[in-house]
Amino acid sequence: MTSPDSHGEAVRFAFGDSPALADELLELVLAGQKTATCGALNDFETGGEPMPQVGRQDIVLDGKGRPAAVIETVEVTIRRFDEVDEDFARAEGEGDLSLTCWREGHEAYFQRNGGFSPDMKLVCERFRLVKILERQDPKE
């Protein structure tokens, strides 16, 4: 769920693959616990997802599609799923922060979203929280 923002190169997106997961992961970002994310390289190459770019600021949406935060990409690497290390898993901020938990959760996520293999390539992004936005319900 991404689209270019009308203000510059910003991309608007929600983490995860459901409104509940989007809200859960957003809360980790807002708490400073989540400073990294990843996606299947194939989604960027063939699925139309915009590739993260170091220095670009993007808008994170909550589970209702409201702008909630601005993040800035500070690092982008491409690595295989089975090459992700404990440091990156911890930076993702999910579960008990272990590599085992990261692998289990992400394998399930990729299975739900197009398939999984241990040697699949991932776009691994580190980011920093720039600004928390005031969320307002859309006008009726």
From TrEMBL:
Family matches, as SUPFAM superfamilies: PUA domain-like
Lineage: Bacteria, Pseudomonadati, Pseudomonadota, Alphaproteobacteria, Hyphomicrobiales
ASCH domain segment(s): 13-131
Pfam families per the UniProt record, alphabetical: ASCH
CDD domains the record matches: ASCH_Ef3133_like
Provenance organism: Nitratireductor rhodophyticola
Name of the protein: ASCH domain-containing protein
